[in-house]
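queue> pop job 88
queue> type: inverse folding (structure -> sequence)
queue> payload:
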């Protein structure tokens, strides 16, 4: 059974945990629409790298 030889200091513990912080997501701005989106993802409007790759369905009014 593994038993530690001596207690870890708070400094050593903090040094080890310094890389556990949360990173902010990398965002990008679409050149066509100017919308902010996650990198390497299609924007909600269906644009990717300035080109429309997904067409949005048109909403018809029933009047």
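queue> result:
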């Amino acid at each position: 059974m593994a038993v530690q030889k001596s207690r870890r200091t708070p400094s050593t513990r903090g040094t080890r945990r310094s890389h556990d912080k949360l990173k902010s997501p990398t965002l990008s701005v679409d050149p066509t629409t100017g919308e902010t989106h996650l990198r390497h993802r299609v924007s909600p409007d269906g644009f990717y790298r300035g080109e429309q790759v997904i067409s949005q369905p048109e909403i018809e009014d029933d009047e």
